[in-house]
């Protein structure tokens, strides 16, 4: 079992700016979110907390590990947020005007993000011999990873709130998505399929 958790809030999250690889730290709200979320993982099931190397993810992981008395494990490059190139720091509200196709100069290809995230899931599981692990990462990385595993287009996935968790379980040599952003996968899949159908009609 693996839980992919989005980090806590940063000032750029609050301001609606695209972060990507820019290493913006948690703000006080983000730290409080991490402390509040820890209770959801109490009870002894989880064995460790790992994270992306970026500061906002690492601090979130440290807060969770301290609150749960769990080991704070390694950082994984595979969990880094997508590199958005020239769009980093730009207000999200401006993106559609400046880059209607989201073809930001210097952007890491979406398909590479999905492959990288899936490789990270496999490596974490191998490093912890299949034990249940909390992995703190980033919204777009999580979205592309899950979409790649379920065979959907990441554009149709919902946006993830700070500290929301998505659960994966290894089953029959594959990873099965059980929840997305704290909601059952079967429930969210209906919304994903509806968005895909709407896009197909618009095309």
TrEMBL record:
It comes from the Bacteria. This is Histidine phosphatase family protein. It comes from Agromyces salentinus.
């Amino acid at each position: 079992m693996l839980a992919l958790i989005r980090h806590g809030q940063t000032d750029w999250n609050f301001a609606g700016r695209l972060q990507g690889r820019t290493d913006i730290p948690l703000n006080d709200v983000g730290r409080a979110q991490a402390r509040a979320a820890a209770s959801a993982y109490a009870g002894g099931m989880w064995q460790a907390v790992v994270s992306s190397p970026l500061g906002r993810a690492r601090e979130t992981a440290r807060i969770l590990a301290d609150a749960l008395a769990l080991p704070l494990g390694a950082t994984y490059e595979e969990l880094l947020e997508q590199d958005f190139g020239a769009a980093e720091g730009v207000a999200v509200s401006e993106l559609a005007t400046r880059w209607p196709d989201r073809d930001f100069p210097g952007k890491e290809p979406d398909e590479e993000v999905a492959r990288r995230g899936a490789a990270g899931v496999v490596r974490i599981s191998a490093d912890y011999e299949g034990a249940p692990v909390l992995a703190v990462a980033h919204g777009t990385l999580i979205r592309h990873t899950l979409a790649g595993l379920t065979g959907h287009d990441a554009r149709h996935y919902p946006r993830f709130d700070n500290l929301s968790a998505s659960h994966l379980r290894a089953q029959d040599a594959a990873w099965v998505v059980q929840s997305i952003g704290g909601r059952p996968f079967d429930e969210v899949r209906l919304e994903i399929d509806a968005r895909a159908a709407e896009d197909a009609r618009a095309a």
